[in-house]
Specification:
alpha+beta; OB fold (Dihydrolipoamide Acetyltransferase, E2P); 5-stranded mixed beta barrel; 19% helix; 29% strand
C-alpha cells in the first residue's frame, strides 16, 4: 500500500499518458494512475478528446474515487480549471493503458482457449 494516498475531492496535477475515444489516462505520480472518462470532461458533448488533449500535457484533475489496492483513481475535470501552464518532465507510462493489454493479449487468449478446450474434452 502506498504512503501517498489521494482523497476524494482532492485537486492534483497529473501528466497525460494516453488519450482514447472514451477517456484520458493520467499519471499522478510514480505509483498512481487514473482515468478521466469522457463523461467527466465536460457537461457539453465532447466529440474527440484527441482534439483537446495531448500525451505529455500537465493538467489539474479532481479525484472522484480511489482504489488503494490497485493504485488507481477515477478522475474528473468537470467544473474545475484543468489547464496548467507549467511543464514537468515526462512521467513514463508504467504498465497502464493499452500497452500492457497489447503485449499480453495473445498469451492470455491462448491460455484461456486451452483451458476451455481441456474443459470441453
Amino acid at each position: 500500500m502506498n504512503n501517498n494516498s489521494f482523497k476524494v475531492g482532492d485537486i492534483v496535477k497529473g501528466q497525460i499518458t494516453g488519450v482514447t475515444p472514451y477517456g484520458v489516462f493520467v499519471s499522478l505520480d510514480d505509483d498512481y494512475t487514473g482515468l478521466v472518462h469522457i463523461s467527466e470532461v465536460s457537461d457539453k458533448f465532447v466529440k474527440n478528446l484527441q482534439d483537446k488533449f495531448n500525451i505529455g500535457d500537465i493538467i489539474n484533475v479532481k479525484v472522484v474515487e480511489v482504489d488503494e489496492d490497485k493504485s488507481h483513481v477515477k478522475l474528473s475535470i468537470k467544473k474545475i480549471d484543468y489547464k496548467v501552464e507549467e511543464t514537468l518532465s515526462m512521467i513514463p507510462e508504467s504498465g497502464s493503458g493499452f500497452g500492457l493489454l497489447e503485449a499480453n493479449l495473445e498469451k492470455w487468449t491462448s491460455k484461456k482457449i486451452k483451458e476451455i478446450n481441456k474443459k470441453n474434452n
